[in-house]
Amino acid sequence: MSTITPVILCGGAGTRLWPLSRQSYPKQFSPLAGADSLFQASLTRLTGDGFAAPVVVTADQFRFIAVQQMHALGITPQAVLIEPTGRDTGPAVLAAALHLAQSDPDALMLVAPSDHVIPDAALFAQTVQAAVPAAQGGQIVAFGITPDRAETGYGYLELGGPLQDGAGIAPLIGFVEKPDAARAAAMLAEGRYLWNAGLFLFTVKDILVAYALHAPDMVEAVQTAVDDARHDLGFLRLAPDAWDRAPAISIDYAVMEQADNLSVAPYAGRWSDLGDWAAVWRETENDGLALSGPAYAIDCADTLLRSENDGQVIMGIGLQDIIAVAMPDAVLIAHKSRAQDVKQAVALLKAQGAGQADTFPKDHRPWGWFESLTIGDRFQVKRIVVHAGGALSLQSHHHRAEHWIVVQGTARVTCDGNVTLLTENESVYIPLGATHRLENPGKVPVVLIEAQTGSYLGEDDIIRYEDIYARD
Amino acid sequence: MSTITPVILCGGAGTRLWPLSRQSYPKQFSPLAGADSLFQASLTRLTGDGFAAPVVVTADQFRFIAVQQMHALGITPQAVLIEPTGRDTGPAVLAAALHLAQSDPDALMLVAPSDHVIPDAALFAQTVQAAVPAAQGGQIVAFGITPDRAETGYGYLELGGPLQDGAGIAPLIGFVEKPDAARAAAMLAEGRYLWNAGLFLFTVKDILVAYALHAPDMVEAVQTAVDDARHDLGFLRLAPDAWDRAPAISIDYAVMEQADNLSVAPYAGRWSDLGDWAAVWRETENDGLALSGPAYAIDCADTLLRSENDGQVIMGIGLQDIIAVAMPDAVLIAHKSRAQDVKQAVALLKAQGAGQADTFPKDHRPWGWFESLTIGDRFQVKRIVVHAGGALSLQSHHHRAEHWIVVQGTARVTCDGNVTLLTENESVYIPLGATHRLENPGKVPVVLIEAQTGSYLGEDDIIRYEDIYARD
């Protein structure tokens, strides 16, 4: 069995699964189908026999979420590359290849999105291993999903002839863009088109040759971004100036559509990109109903009802082909046929200045997370959770005082130079202007209630003096 | 102009407008159509020239809500009668009549539900005044609404012949129960049937005669309940043992359907009982859409989208004939044709043990209200608002300690005999077992954040030593 390095791309921030997926915490980090997040499920699928530790490519604002979710699974990545800005998959895959080339140009890399569902991990691993000889023989292998419907939402991979049951690697003739309904139906009938899942296997040296041939400009920019990358708390920050010279383009456009050493590995197992709520319904429905959380349906058919919060019930009555997703700060109700238009809804909310378009009430930080429980005139109450070993920056505020009450765990509090240990049921007052820091020196999370009072309570009223996470 | 005493019934707790209407805070106390609650709109409509101070009949658990909402309008009732248990409208109207008989048997009383919408208050008052001579002449006058559709959800009043435009009082021939669709259509075509709005005008002495004739058993029970009523902080608590002997029956069944001195006063203005969400949609829609709160609709038709919380957006896409009501703890989505089945949904939730079936996160008390902001393992955070002059009972807890932080106003805190004044940004710790009290001695509401810690955090861990509201 050959060892393959998974390259997992998790820098995207789609909005078609709003309100669950938002720019501040996109869908790959949420448990959309199962107990783990999609990113975690992807990692788990690509761990074990035949797989080396993964290379993860993500965006600056998701770096701590990604690390924390890997940590929860006990997975230590080979590297976490930080894209200074989103430039689509072309530069991301190239950066990973250039990084791997430093240690092993013959390494096999499997490029995988982090937000897809592939329930049969064993069959998938087997399919990947079966493609290794082709990749080692110089082929760029794309994995193609056997279609079971005339889907207009995906691109297609074209084979020379109809796919036989149990067929192995075949030459890839061409790519087909997202088709219209008639074309999709015709392709389904012809039987020689597979869905393009964005999953690719190749060796580092072969893909670098392909980039050099088909996207030489990108190579110069990304090579510099990798060479000048800054090591920062275990992250590899690609150099922003060089990176920004790389075009924003997918690997499909930049390389695949130009290359002539292409193969397809057919995958007959179940797969979904969970691209919209209709796809989530399709993947999770049982007898037509997809219920999640405290959700109840009376006489509903072909309907998805999700509550993303244990304390919020959702009740459907007499619904047909409805998607409803409830969160404490935002509720979506759409006809299933309009699932693609959720994007448009998010744009509308953004135009209205509604924070729910982008942001969750729960804000993830390197040290843990916080959420606002209530905001009033001149006061705000937050719940703050600090991971074991986490520490907020040493900071002060111009416009607010804070009361902290520890309700779980043990906190170390620094206030104007005095350090005290606070345990459950103890509290401390941080006067306006005081230099303070909150740390969790223990082994269990600290849960703290913070009541702020003052004339201005924005997150930007902060002066940072020291920060173990090297934030400004 | 004659002076009429409005008798406003607000003891009911309907569930067909769940999640907005729940047993703990039913629809009449919510602002369903307009800025004031339905109860407040009813009071306002029955205030001014021609109306005496109202008599309000309500249930024990709503007494402070009713008083507070009257107080907000500057209305002082003649009396607030507390029904020990709900016995429908028959005993409630009788109790009000017996109470009024003590001061003036000739008084005119207008019985009015508290949860209906009658936008044209002037036309309504004029219609009521026009019915006074008939009532003074010994008639029991029912107000009948000119129907504009074949409604199956209401009872009907039957006239001797088709109603003429601008017609006045006419003899009432009979009552028709809620009809089926065919019968409703036939009655609409015939033009001599009006909706029974549950609005009645009569003199105290005439209605007492009617009760004595047609419901003598009820008179004995209710007379005793009124005679033995206990005056309690401005409320008149009907005596529970006697009251419970009265049958649970509507005034329509108990008296009206037997009496022969009946008249109808036609009312041609707009009216709705807001009996279900379809009715709320009908009353509040504009171009087919009924939007309330931060609600957004993309390509929706004949749809109601309500958010009952400023911090919660609701977004509809491509919906037709959908009712959606969002609250932070419960979301309803129903086909409009199924609005009547919300009752069934509430029963289902109740059977599942979901607190949302009956109870709001916000809990109203005589001194103000509180809501739980977050509940965790061994801790809970509440926001507590104490009205000016309000005082919680002197109490202690076996299983929890409390931290209080004042974020608005000034609180007087008693803790084991020590009294301190706490103002904004000050906090106090109430140890487990300490006898304590919270009061608002000031002129503005006190807003307090309470963090509780302990092994058991239920509302029933309370020992009350003194209570200005005479609660146990």
UniProtKB/TrEMBL annotation, chains A, B:
One of its GO terms (molecular function) is GTP binding. GO terms for biological process: GDP-mannose biosynthetic process; polysaccharide biosynthetic process. The keyword GTP-binding applies. Residues 358-467 form the Mannose-6-phosphate isomerase type II C-terminal domain. Keywords: GTP-binding, Isomerase, Nucleotide-binding, Nucleotidyltransferase, Transferase. The keyword Disulfide bond does not apply. It catalyses: alpha-D-mannose 1-phosphate + GTP + H(+) = GDP-alpha-D-mannose + diphosphate. PANTHER family: MANNOSE-1-PHOSPHATE GUANYLYLTRANSFERASE (PTHR46390). Its EC number is 2.7.7.13. Residues 6-286 form the Nucleotidyl transferase domain. Belongs to the mannose-6-phosphate isomerase type 2 family. Coiled coil: none annotated. It comes from the Bacteria. Pfam families: ManC_GMP_beta-helix (PF22640), MannoseP_isomer (PF01050), NTP_transferase (PF00483). This is mannose-1-phosphate guanylyltransferase. Residues 297-347 form the MannoseP isomerase/GMP-like beta-helix domain.
